[in-house]
Amino acid sequence: MISKVDIYCLNADGALYDAAVAAFSNLQIPVVALNDNGRIVSISGEEEKNASITMKEAVNKEKRKLTHKNIPFSLTCKLHKKYILADPTAEEESIMDTLVTVVLDSSDQIVAFNKSGGNALAGSSAINQGESFHHFVELARKRGKELKQILADMDID
């Protein structure tokens, strides 16, 4: 099943891509129905009755959590001269050269890799030439391991 999702950010302080991955990972599908106009509308617990629009039967009977075979984990880093900064704030993002985001699934497979701005990674002065791609993936794996442990401790699927 393919889903299209629009994510609207209400407040951003950096690492927006990471926040979008986390939001999608925790997505819950609300109870919805079709109205007489053929539009999908959400049904709240205290459904407001509108005389001009009558609801048809609910498409799904209860709120459902989106299920994933593998939960994605992402890590965004900024490069600036010889420094690598993980999870930068918006202010830190604005003064740095290169943004790198790595998304891994729960089995540590690369789902996405995005780099914007700055020089090519192989020539980065932040780390030795030729090691940069693998370095970012290893940082993301380390972060994913930490997040998996936090989720396990919280008993969250």
Task: Give a description of the structure.
This protein is an alpha+beta fold. It has two domains: 28-65, no CATH class; 73-154, 2-Layer Sandwich (Ribosomal Protein S5, domain 2), CATH 3.30.230.70. It contains three helices and nine strands; from the N terminus they run H-E-E-E-E-E-E-E-H-E-E-H. The strands form three sheets. It has a four-stranded antiparallel sheet with strand order 7-6-8-9, sandwiched between helices. Strands 3-2-4 form a three-stranded antiparallel sheet, with no helix packed on it. A two-stranded antiparallel sheet has the order 1-5. It starts with 15 loop residues before the first helix and ends with a helix.
What does this entry show, briefly?
It is found in: Cytoplasm; Nucleus, Nucleolus. The chain has 157 residues and is α+β, with helices and mostly antiparallel strands. 25% of the residues lie in helices and 26% in strands.
Instruction: Kindly identify the CATH topology of the largest domain.
Output: Ribosomal Protein S5, domain 2
CATH superfamily of the largest domain: GHMP Kinase, N-terminal domain
Low-confidence stretches: 48-54
Beta-strand content: 25-35%
| Helix/strand order | HEEEEEEEHEEH
Q: Provide the structure class.
A: alpha+beta
Keywords: Cytoplasm, Exosome, Nucleus, RNA-binding, rRNA processing
Domain Exoribonuclease phosphorolytic: 71-120
GO molecular function: mRNA 3'-UTR AU-rich region binding
Organism: Brassica carinata (Ethiopian mustard)
